User: Fold these one by one.
Assistant:
Number 1:
Amino acid sequence: MNIEKSLQQDISKAFSTLFQAELKADEIALQPTRKEFEGSHTFVCFPYARLSKKNPEETGKLLGTHLVENSEVVEDFNVVKGFLNLVLTDATWVGAFKDIFNAENFGFQPANGKEVMIEYSSPNTNKPLHLGHLRNNFLGWSVAEILKANGYNVHKVQIINDRGIHICKSMVAWQLYGDGETPESSGKKGDKLVGDYYVKFDQEYKKEIAELEKKGMAKEQAEKEAPIFKKAQELLLKWENKEPEVYQLWQTMNGWVYDGFDVTYKTMGVDFDKLYYESSTYLLGKEQALEGVEKGVFFQKEDGSVWVDLTDEGLDQKLLLRADGTSVYMTQDIGTAILRFTDFPKISKQIYTVGNEQEYHFNVLFKILAKLGYSWAKECYHLSYGMVDLPTGKMKSREGTVVDADDLMQEMVDTAKAHTAELGKVDDFTKEQAKELYEILGLGALKYFLLKVDPRKRMLFDPEESIQFHGNTAPFIQYTHARISAILRKADQLGIKPDYNSFDNLNSLHGSEVGIIGTLSDYPKKVKEAGENYSPDVIAQYVYDLAKDYNRFYQEISIFNEEDQDALKFRIALSTVVAQTIQKAMGLLGIKVPSRM
RNA sequence: GGUCCGCUAGCUCAGCUGGAUAGAGCAACUGCCUUCUAAGCAGUAGGUCUUAGGUUCGAAUCCUAAGCGGAUCACCA
């Protein structure tokens, strides 16, 4: 029996007997008691004074007295300024813990038969992944896990933006300046190599613009007339016409990028159930655009370009096909969405994990899909997250202030290594064990740092702070797990194996033990909340609180010096559940926990 | 200019379905390792919750306006 529900029912009954007033159990709001007062649950009397026809203070006193006499769970109470603080019996806490200890998959919901699709990552294939992608990938992957924990069947997908003017830019630069360079010939990671040519393009492009401007051309026109830019445009057109030479180069260079991405995804610990490629969805989008013209939902301008008019929705007109027939970003997103709902007809929701600078884009996309008559358009949701800023300001790829994903992850692992070596606690580890530990710690620290913040908010990435191993960090939580693991190893050696009835005669609990049980009881609620709001930060915050609670207990109470066998077994059981919960909650964030560190 | 988002301790963030004296971490200062891992624990100090109105028994939380910062309004993705 859930503690909160028992209390709600008892309070409801009390209102009926004491005040002859009807108050439904599920309408009763209880809040956690502030730590400066005695008790665990607080009933705020003000809103109910109307029902009790007594002032809040009086209501609280009558209610408290009645509960102590009639409720099995209430031991004591105090009323402070209209707040009724309830102290529960230790038996109640032990009972609640027994249920948790016994639970099959505590905190997780059984399958609910619903399917959702979540998209994340979705990089362009013209440059390597960076810090912003890390937030995106960790967020999307974590939300997927959290939704699974809430009983959904989840499909993790991404759309790889493998075609378009951006990749053509890299291709042109490689044709002009590449001299046949390949990842094999230069030893460069494929995505880095292609990214270098994207930068090269931009440098040359700027030079050409400057030259044209010098000759008296307006900047805007120079941007369109620069020869290298025109070459990129030509390549795009040739690509859409599937000219073999261009198509092959495109395939080769994308192949290099995919090889590079694979390595990065593997390090990140992120994966996908299905990949969509823009190159194979944009044609469907084109068809839709043309069909839309026939249906009269879209219109064509004199130059042949296709547009949608959303002015009646408070938005603007939006281009869907260029005059030369080539498609834009929006075109392929229409095709992709349709394809996905065709592939997975049962999905009840599609979540797009994409930065908040694209809010307008998705707003428009969903409206277009609705206009085309797709009823599922309203089930599309843009999980919009904030930018990652650096202490030096915004990341700008063209100014070289981008934090590369591979470099950053490596740096985190290196730092974990240095810090661990300094402490010297795992000097007996084999090389492989040590390497694994450094990766668990370094990647964990990074993931936690990026996930503990509300995704909707923009956040500051301070490299100094991100590699901190104290305080509200993954290593702190991982350390707590390692400590518990040491205790459980010892308990195992001593043959202490608590079961459901091992602590039936336990007659008193310490405050820190009650605190842990209270926090554990919150876990299912937190998993649900994190799922409803697509907020891994709820889990991050929770698991930190749990670790803190355990560390206080660890510091205050000795386990193995305890003579009372019931108390000893209870503490082992409590430690077991905390370790499992830490492990599972961190798992929802994609963070592993070591048994020694 | 229109639309949207943010503003809480020196810094980074919780709290936001209205509840008590607004919480953590970092940084600073003070204690605690012959005891299950000190990557820890306990404590001190640090706040007109951007401002002004309003609703309410009660507002960091809801409403209105202003200020500051950001995003967006591309034949870029």
Number 2:
Amino acid sequence: MATRSSVKTFPLPFTTVDVVIFTVLDDVLRVLLVQRPNAEGEPFPGAWALPGGYVDTAVDATLEDCARRKLLEKTGVGSPYLEQLGSWGGAARDPRGWSATHVYFALIPAQGVVLAKGANAADVAWYAVADVLRAPELAFDHAAILRTAVERLRSKVEYTSLPAFLLAEPFSLPQLQRMYEIVLGRPVDKSGFRTRMLSANFLEEAGVAEGDSYRPAKGYRLIDRSAPVVFPRTFSPRAGDSNT
Amino acid sequence: MATRSSVKTFPLPFTTVDVVIFTVLDDVLRVLLVQRPNAEGEPFPGAWALPGGYVDTAVDATLEDCARRKLLEKTGVGSPYLEQLGSWGGAARDPRGWSATHVYFALIPAQGVVLAKGANAADVAWYAVADVLRAPELAFDHAAILRTAVERLRSKVEYTSLPAFLLAEPFSLPQLQRMYEIVLGRPVDKSGFRTRMLSANFLEEAGVAEGDSYRPAKGYRLIDRSAPVVFPRTFSPRAGDSNT
DNA sequence: ACAATAGTGTCTCTTAGACACTATGCG
DNA sequence: CGCATAGTGTCTAAGAGACACTATTGT
């Protein structure tokens, strides 16, 4: 900042914002992808990519506002769980020049989502995360970004209430447990799960949860939707490797 | 990215990188600050700020390279612990216009640091973190950034080997324990501490540690300096509040 | 030999994990 | 009335915290 402060004659990097939007649909963890336009001069024509784009300095007051806007445009969801994931920047990631992207990651319930088709972003779809990770044909460095996002999600799910943001309220404890199991990819003990959730004091009762179950379950709602709860310990440290 | 891809006639935000560099000096956690120039047109003239500045697209291949460069220029340290903290961007944070900064945070041992004085960044100094947080007169939104960095540091120290990066090798377990206590601001039990460190298997013996102690202590070195170790549990969960 | 620090042993109490059990509503 | 799911109780064992102890070296 010192060296060349007032005189700005050097080339500026492009600034973009991308959003990794997760949901659980049909018992599978999914991520929202958009197909890149086929127009001339466009990088990665026809390839799938994370939703995002240039910051509009005239519209977006902050980076987070920009992320919210993009999420709303693509999904119609206005109150997601949203946190910053990190940023990726360099000379090589976009053929158009030096660029830096600020990446956010969001969790939303599948229901109530209205995907924005047509317009300019040709197509939008929910992809199973496992499939995308297996054959990562994404544009730019989005495969790496997605990988990081999934890692972050999995690791935080071990000790936070994050999966609650994947469900529409009111939800039942069995449903919530299901979310944990889907994201973690392994079963979770029912009894321990319930004690843990209820003693963390972040849920309040709210009627009865939807579901085609034999016995209806109590409904719950988040007391505070603004942030997840951090549990004092991780799930199943019994299996603790000493690495990472 | 879709809407206005090829035609870039709209204003680009400024892209900067800032680095929060921590060390422990004289038994106190400190952060490196630089004084902003007094020249005309400079924002926050004379104020203290985090070291950082514009990305130089001709020199820096990636954001992290840029952070490494700035750290090397200011401290002479070439192999710090470096991780990304997050990014802050918006219309209001810099009077010169819409700007986004990518912030990294670094840990370095105090010894061997050669502060770069003079030149253009008028002055450089280690400030006690506690003092700066008490009277946050920093330029831009750097006070908020520092606060976030300290939070992140403190929280990660609870369950990782991060403080090892604050020491020159070889170091002793008592010295390492001291680092934990200084960062956490509370005493840590010796016995538990040792079991924990040694069973995590990230240290290897390396001679004898420096120190004016009565009884010399065994020296240790990190087996892998590239990343910290994550412990399965936090320190003293006994005191666990249910919040945050 | 003594002081000061390095390093070890032991006890207790919490709590997670495992799993068996009871309760309840639907077909 | 039985069955599938919701929800509870109990046992065990691992580990953390606390603290008392022993070991080693410099002065």
